[in-house]
Amino acid sequence: MSSIFTKIINGEIPAYKVAENDKFLAFLDINPNAKGHTLCIPKQEINKIFDMEEDHYVELMKFSREVAKALETAVPCKRIGMAVVGLEVPHVHVHLIPLQEMDDMRFTKKEKLTPSEFEEVANAIKESL
Ligand code: AMP
Q: What confidence tens digit (pLDDT) does each residue in 10-50 have?
């Protein structure tokens, strides 16, 4: 069965997409730690990040870096935090989180956004790319 992220790639379920190329996709986390929390994923469905081929892994990091720089421009924050967890969704994803404080890296502290707030932050990131 396809992962929920493969369904996003295939357009079967909606997402607030911010960047895409032939190999990778970035979209907003639906249950963000902080406004602008973004996930960068490979289109190839791979469970664990360190099982990726080295070149593919490096390309994912380059893609994530580009998105992180746009995110830092778009969302006022002290810096962008990066994490890889994968306990919930078994499809590689890099979390990029605008940080104001250490608690923003805790995956138990969540921010509620309206659809228009998601749209607004997604557009701001896209415009900063
Ligand atoms: P983890 O696998 O523990 O790294 O966490 C998976 C992340 O994916 C969580 O932060 C979820 O909020 C996020 N997530 C799950 N489903 C969706 C979805 N349909 N769209 C956007 N983000 C999602």
A: 999 999 999 999 999 999 999 999 999 999 999 999 999 99
Q: Which of 45, 82, 88 to mutate to test the pocket of ligand 1 (most atoms within 8 A of CB)?
A: 88
Which atom belonging to ligand 1 lies closest to the Cα atom of 28?
Answer: 21
Q: What is the CATH number of the domain that holds 18?
A: 3.30.428.10
- pTM of this structure: 0.98
Q: Kindly indicate the confidence band of residue 127, based on its pLDDT and cuts at 50, 70 and 90.
A: very high
Ligand 1 centroid to Cα of residue 4, in Å, is 9
Residue 70 structural domain: 4-128
- C-alpha 30: how far from its chain's center? 10
Q: How many CB atoms lie within 10 A of CB 99?
A: 16
The total of structural domains in the chain comes to 1
Catalytic site residue 37? Answer: no
Q: Position of tokens 């469905």?
A: 45
| Calpha distance 37→45 (Å, rounded) | 21
Ligand 1 pocket: which of 28, 35, 89 to mutate (most atoms <8 Å of CB)? 89
